[in-house]
Structures are given as C-alpha cells and as structure tokens.
Amino acid sequence: xxxxxxxxxxxxxxxxxxxxxxxxxxxxxxxxxxxxxxxxxxxxxxxxxxxxxxxxxxxxxxxxxxxxxxxxxxxxxxxxxxxxxxxxxxxxxxxxxxxxxxxxxxxxxxxx
Length: 112
Hints:
Helices cover 0% and strands 51% of the residues.
C-alpha cells in the first residue's frame, strides 16, 4: 500500500496551493479519505474529510470557505485546494486513507 502526498511548498499570505494524494494498493473508492495537518507545537488535527464516493465532505471551521477537498476515483487521487492561505496554515499536511494508511506528509509554509 502506498499513500503519497505532493503539492506543498512556500507561498505568500493570500496565495493558493493544491495538494494531491495518490493511493495505490487498496480499493480506493471503498474508503473515505481525509487531510490532516500538524502545525509547530500542536498535535495533528483533522482539516477535511470526504466520503469514498465523493458526494459528502466536511471541513473544520478554520478552513471553511478557503479550502476544498475533492477526489478523482479514476486516478485514485484526493485533492485539497487551499486558497487565501495565512501563516496559521503553515504545517505538514498528511493524507489518510480510511483503510488505515497514512502518507508521509507534505510541507506547506505560508510566509512573506
């Protein structure tokens, strides 16, 4: 099983990034998926969740209206579109497949 995130980087406040998470080795569309982040000095927290069929999703209050989670079950990929980024969004973003698998994370840094 492989879960691999990509798309992180350095962006200025107000900027945008789109993270991708490619999963292989599991029946992708049978499992829900989520994005989590770990910011400096804090525990890992759930950011966004999407059902296996992609029809339902939830975002934490701090990112509502700015982040969007989606998935492509043909390409076995989950996306996190992030807009209006601010320094508080800085951290390592992890993808989780509800089959019980974590990726290694991708670093997002929001700084001028």
